[in-house]
Amino acid sequence: MTLERAHEAGLAAIAGHDVAALPGALRRVEETSLRAMAAVLPSTGVAARHAWLVDRWRAALEGEPDIEPDGGAPGPEFEDAYATLGFPPAMARFHRAALARLSGLLADEVDVRQLLFGDADVLTALAAYQDNVFTGYLNAASADLVRQAADATPYPLRVLELGGGAGLCTAAALAALRGARYEYLFTDVSRLFTVAAARRFAEHPGVDHALLDIDTDFAAQGREAGSADVVLAGNVLHNATHVGRALERIRWLLAPGGSLVFTESTRENHAILTSMQFLLSPEPGRARLGSDDRRGPAGAVFVDEAGWCAELTGAGFTPPRTLPDPESPLAVAGQQLFWSRRVE
């Protein structure tokens, strides 16, 4: 398995996009988000469960001392930037609506789920959030690594996908596996997604689906030790309450020498801080994600690259190899692919 080939597959998947324009477009969206944060922060009407998010806003603004508050509606360049980043128009509309209602969101007077989903299908709305140049590249690169593993395995490759969600990573992997021998298990913690996946991928041979919670012992959920050759996880592992323990469960699931291929954000995105991350505020009585692992002291949602390296090696994996190259415009969003093997 080579990252070079995976990288080329990722580039091929986004061939119609101007990669060089990504940093400027992302900066426009993030500056708009920072100005909106600065305009709202004097507000005292913050629901207790969103207090952590306000702390993250303050930390973001401390790193951007030249940002001036501006609570006004962004201009049409906002939609242009989202289009350059490869998002469908629905994502720009959602973020614009969230920016206009930040005070209400913080006070829990507005439900971000209503802004995101509205009357639309949940899967369609989530796919809009996940469909962009960065994830297009990473999903294709991840899928190519899975195909390389299939080509190198003398028996049907056993793939287990964690947190399959709306199925974008799944679709890329199954397309790459066309003509190969494989057994593919799509899993998610929600029956909504497993049922949808069963319908969407019904015509693909060798695909099954099951409920699986990354925060719970896998054996207790019917999984067997060493039953997967590849574990695939697209932007899901940060949802673990404790990433180290989740990685230990994944290692248990993998066969000797098996691969973990996953994608993750490794830095906070200011646009997400003013939109999607409201979904991560815990309900009363529930712990916040990462409150018990290395993220806890800082209140961060995402683990940086050095943190993932430490967590992986500590859980019994090889030091990860990553994409994209840090100097690539594709690296500007902090979204990365990690490939690591189980150590014996």
UniProtKB/TrEMBL annotation:
Keyword Nucleus among record annotations: no
Question: Could you list the residue ranges forming a coiled coil in this record?
Answer: none
The record's annotation in InterPro entries points to:
Methyltransf_12, SAM-dependent_MTases_sf
Arranged from A to Z, the UniProt key words for this protein are: Methyltransferase, Transferase
What are the Methyltransferase type domain coordinates in residue numbering? Answer: 160-260
Q: Name one GO molecular function term.
A: methyltransferase activity
Q: Mind telling me which Pfam families this protein's record contains?
A: Methyltransf_12
GO terms of biological process kind: methylation
State the name under which the record lists this protein.
Methyltransferase family protein
What's the source species' lineage? Bacteria, Bacillati, Actinomycetota, Actinomycetes, Pseudonocardiales
